[in-house]
Amino acid sequence: MADPLAQIVGLLQPGAPFSKCVTGSGPWRVRRTQSPNPYYVAVLKGSLRYRDQLSGEVIVNAGDFILIPSAQDFMMWSEAPSADNDLVIDPVILPGGGYRVGSIDGPIDMRALVGYCIFQSEDATLLSSLLPELVVVRGEHRLAMLMQLLGDEAVGSKPGREVVLQHLLEVLLIEALRSTAELGDSPGLLRGLSDERLAVAIRNMHARPGRGWTVAELAREAALSRSGFHERFQSAIGMAPMEYLKAWRLALAKDLLRKREASVGEIARQVGYRSASAFSVAFLRDVGVSPARYARETPGLSGMAKEFEGAIA
């Protein structure tokens, strides 16, 4: 059976992250508003506090990890009481390349590895919307080991570094997402997969996207009434079943077109269309260009990561 979470993360095409070690001393505050890209924090020593407009305040202790899939406006601050005048505008860059917030001379009471992930897929906004607004993982040994590997690789210069970083990041995201028990009230794929009955329907959609699914058929797979299934799916995932299926098929089609390994007709059949012409009409309506033109003009993975260099702390 298909693993929807692994497929979603794979289609997001996570790029190599920028990682920096940040140390803190005394009172400090950091606010970031400039990037919609996923942001993560792994606290190695001490603790810090996090808050955004949707999630409220979260205490992050040593051994904890947080992932913010869409980090558009958030604040972090010290465990020590802080005020507005403790807001860090330009963190101190240390000789070894790390960042210091708070007192430059005081004893270190917080150490964290922070960084940006970069989803390089054109469908990143759609796909990342299926993730929780905030992922909090506490005390997971496997995650800590992955973070250590990621940090070591990020500062190294061994051959194949970018490939290793990309695969480590994929594993890290999957491990973080499947480890979390703190989903809050936000809808998304994880909430759907945590519902045993909805999970059956979701896995079937991912395993057989080419089948002509109806809401009634998916409801039977989930052992629910049609109306009950529709309402439960909408509440858990944040979109209707057919809307989700359409979005998944479109994301798959784009990925297959980018790879240029199959004809438009073959791709049409794989994602549930009876003919290449029907697929082309639907694709043109939703994307704005024909499948053939999309495959021809869409570039491969780019150096998007450079845009965010230096925007870590």
Strand content: 15-25%
Structural class: alpha+beta
Radius of gyration: 21 Å
Oligomer: single chain
The end-to-end span amounts to 41 Å
Low-confidence stretches: 301-313
**Strand arrangement, major sheet:** 8-9-1-10-3-6-11
**Total helical segments:** 12
> Major beta sheet, specifics?
7 strands, mixed
Helix content: 40-55%
Q: What coarse outline follows from CA principal-axis ratios?
A: globular
Number of strands: 11
Q: What number is the mean pLDDT?
A: 83
- H-E string: HEEEEEEEEEEHEHHHHHHHHHH
In words, what does this structure look like?
With 313 residues, this protein is α+β, with helices and mostly antiparallel strands. 41% of the residues lie in helices and 21% in strands. The strands form two sheets. It has a seven-stranded mixed β-sheet. Helix 3 packs antiparallel against helix 4, helix 7 packs across helix 8 and helix 10 packs across helix 11. The longest helix is centred in the middle third of the chain and has 19 residues. The chain starts with a helix and ends in a 16-residue tail after the last helix. The C terminus is likely disordered.
Topology:
Blueprint: H1 4-12, E1 14-25, E2 29-32, E3 39-45, E4 47-52, E5 56-61, E6 64-68, E7 74-78, E8 92-93, E9 99-102, E10 110-119, H2 124-128, E11 135-138, H3 141-154, H4 161-179, H5 189-194, H6 196-207, H7 215-221, H8 226-237, H9 241-259, H10 264-270, H11 276-287, H12 291-297
